[in-house]
Q: What sequence folds into this?
């Protein structure tokens, strides 16, 4: 067969021949290898999941080229909202969806084309991890996960078969600490503002996430009872910022961080001993031989989830390739790669096949490691006998207190945040 | 056809530069001014003519505090870079007799510029940190008992980085003007019985004024627009106007960022206008 024009309809092709039978039995679109090798998909997202290893594996397994651009969270939002033609695949977080979806730069995805759709964990479909679990506060992924139809602009409240983002990666965040410099157990979010750590604490300077950490602290202190930490009233915002501004003026914080490496350096150099942190940053500190713990706290976790969105302008062969990519993404290799760094995959079952029994036990089931646990790049993360912080998948994801969010009063919050930074 | 009209020829000669300036300087600034009157929602900006952005800017105490901080950084950095820059240039121009040595030493001044701004700045962080080289050295000398916390993530570290980054912008123009000073003027001053200080004050300083002024404009505009130094060296704990703008851009608040940028631009222009009242650069050059 000669090379088809870009933009041909897969359905038209299927109707023409016997390939239809084979292809419809397997819902992923089948592409001709000699054509796919010319396809280039441009993906951008945060450094968390935009890894060259993934791009290489895509080339090996699927044949087409994936160009990765890793940006910081703010730039990701900017790019998705303002430069629709600069990408084919947006690897973004669910809370950003609330800002980006109304711009119309993304297209909804047909879940019937997703082979492993039924095996995606409940958090992303109904909001519930298990049928009994309570839905956490904030922008829970399922609330921005669906739209009415292919051209829907409003978020749907239930599974409609049209997804905004296909979930790929998520985790439960908490505070990172230096146990060697603290020397006592840390159990609550309140410790972030404990005067004992004056000049040695830090939070992140990304307002929509930072305010959630603040809220966890203020609630734990008993100072504020929030209706919904992920959607505060102006009064709640004022009171939250006021508490932290006072702490800032009393010299509680050493610095604020905005990028991954800043948080690693602050912790590794001993400038701070307690701070909001991301799990791979803990790994990075540990791999320098410095003791660092991702401390589970009794009030629970602040969680986030990321997914893959498709550009509105994607069509034809490229669109089919993108669906191929999504199906491949959920089929286990990437899941295993991510889970061996401490994140969770949207379809944990498939990742299991790409992990050793020891790794699966340690990362997912919260069991003691039976052997050394290494990262995908070969760094030692844990020795035999160690257990993962926070326990098993269900313990960790079951203790999520809130999701990263965009509030109705977001603009007001941002202005107050600027005041906090300038105070 | 021969171009005989002098005016037409003049216009033609000026046209390329005019077009470049219009396209890459005037048009973007005009755009920023226009956008600063627009409105914004969470995810879009819409054309309108409203004063909301300015209203918020001028009614917020943050604005005044941040502009205050910006001017403070500019002034302190200016004072320090001027005294260091002037001293260095003076030494190079009047104490080094051999021109070869002069050029060699001048090149030495530029060595820090062989690496990027960001690297020069970030390398201060491990040096000044709580367990950094500076603190460890001071402790081992017995000067202090506990690490000095204010060395890093403070106004001190911000200004230190600014001075480090921008002193050369003072040295170069001052050195340049000093080299043009007619040496016979210095001899005349000495012959008339002026002391070294009197010569410096009444001969060298007035003649160096254009260089100082050019250096000042460099340093002040650079410091007032720099946001990355403030962010890194203060550990995000301080803010200047540049950071306000970069925060706004990060949060897609382009109109608000544009309004702040317009106010900053006006402030810088006013500062330069005041500076130019003291020296007529065109005449002096």
A:
């Amino acid at each position: 067969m000669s090379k088809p024009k870009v933009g041909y309809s897969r359905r038209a092709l299927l109707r023409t021949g016997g390939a239809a039978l084979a292809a419809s039995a397997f819902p992923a679109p089948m592409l001709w290898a000699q054509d796919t090798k010319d396809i280039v998909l441009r993906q951008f997202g945060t450094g968390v999941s935009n890894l060259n290893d993934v791009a290489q594996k895509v080339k090996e397994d699927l044949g087409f080229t994936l160009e990765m651009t890793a940006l910081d969270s703010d730039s990701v939002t900017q790019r998705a909202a303002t430069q629709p033609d600069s990408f084919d695949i947006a690897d973004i977080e669910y809370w950003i969806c609330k800002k980006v979806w109304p711009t119309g730069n993304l297209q909804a995805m047909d879940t019937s084309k997703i082979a492993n759709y039924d095996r995606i964990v409940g958090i992303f479909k109904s909001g519930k991890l298990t049928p009994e679990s309570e839905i956490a506060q904030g922008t829970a992924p399922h609330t921005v996960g669906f739209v009415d139809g292919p051209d829907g602009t409003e978020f749907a409240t239930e599974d409609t078969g049209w997804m905004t983002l296909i979930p790929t990666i998520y985790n439960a965040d908490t505070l990172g600490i230096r146990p060697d410099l603290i020397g006592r157990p840390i159990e609550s979010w309140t410790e972030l503002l404990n005067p004992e750590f004056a000049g040695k604490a830090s939070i992140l300077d990304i307002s929509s996430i930072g305010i959630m950490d603040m809220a966890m602290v203020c609630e734990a202190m008993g100072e504020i009872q929030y209706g919904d930490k992920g959607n505060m009233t102006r009064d709640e915002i004022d009171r939250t910022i006021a508490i932290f501004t006072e702490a800032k003026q009393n010299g509680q914080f050493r610095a604020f961080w905005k990028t991954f490496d800043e948080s690693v350096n602050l912790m590794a150099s001993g400038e701070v001993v307690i701070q909001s942190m991301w799990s791979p940053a803990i790994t990075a500190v540990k791999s320098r031989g410095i003791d660092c713990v991702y401390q589970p706290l009794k009030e629970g976790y602040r969680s986030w989830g990321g997914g893959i969105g498709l550009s509105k302008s994607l069509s034809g062969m490229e669109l089919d390739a993108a669906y191929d990519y999504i199906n491949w993404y959920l089929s286990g290799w990437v899941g295993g790669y991510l889970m061996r760094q401490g994140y969770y995959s949207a379809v944990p079952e498939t990742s299991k096949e790409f992990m050793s029994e020891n790794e699966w036990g340690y990362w997912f089931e919260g069991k003691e490691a039976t052997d050394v646990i290494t990262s995908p790049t070969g760094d030692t993360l844990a020795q035999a006998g160690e257990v993962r912080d926070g326990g098993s998948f269900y313990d960790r994801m079951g203790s999520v207190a809130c999701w990263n969010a965009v509030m109705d009063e977001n603009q007001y919050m941002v202005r107050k945040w600027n005041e906090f930074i300038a105070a | 056809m021969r171009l005989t009209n002098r005016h037409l020829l003049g216009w033609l000669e000026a046209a390329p530069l005019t077009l470049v300036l219009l396209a890459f300087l005037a048009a973007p600034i005009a755009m920023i001014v226009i956008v600063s009157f627009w409105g914004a929602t969470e995810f879009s900006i819409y054309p309108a003519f409203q004063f909301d952005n300015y209203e918020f800017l001028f009614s917020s105490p943050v604005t005044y505090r941040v502009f205050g901080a910006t001017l403070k950084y500019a002034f302190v950095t200016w004072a320090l870079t001027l005294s260091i820059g002037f001293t260095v240039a003076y030494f190079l121009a009047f104490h080094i007799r051999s021109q070869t040595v002069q050029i060699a030493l001048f090149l030495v001044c530029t060595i820090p510029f062989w690496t990027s701004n960001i690297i020069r700045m970030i390398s201060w962080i491990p040096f000044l940190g709580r367990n950094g080289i500076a603190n460890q050295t001071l402790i081992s000398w017995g000067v202090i008992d506990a690490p000095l916390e204010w060395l890093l993530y403070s106004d001190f570290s911000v200004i230190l980085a600014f001075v480090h980054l921008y002193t050369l912008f003072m040295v170069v123009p001052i050195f340049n003007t000093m080299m043009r000073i007619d040496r016979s003027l210095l001899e005349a001053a000495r012959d008339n019985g002026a002391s070294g200080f009197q010569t410096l004050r009444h001969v060298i300083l007035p003649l160096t004024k254009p260089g100082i002024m050019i250096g000042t404009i460099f340093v002040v505009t650079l410091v007032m627009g720099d946001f990355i130094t403030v962010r890194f060296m203060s550990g995000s704990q301080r803010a200047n106007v540049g950071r306000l703008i970069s925060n706004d851009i990060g949060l897609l608040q382009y109109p608000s960022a544009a309004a702040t940028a317009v106010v900053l631009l006006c402030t810088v222009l006013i500062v330069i206008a005041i500076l130019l009242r003291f020296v007529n650069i065109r005449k002096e050059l």
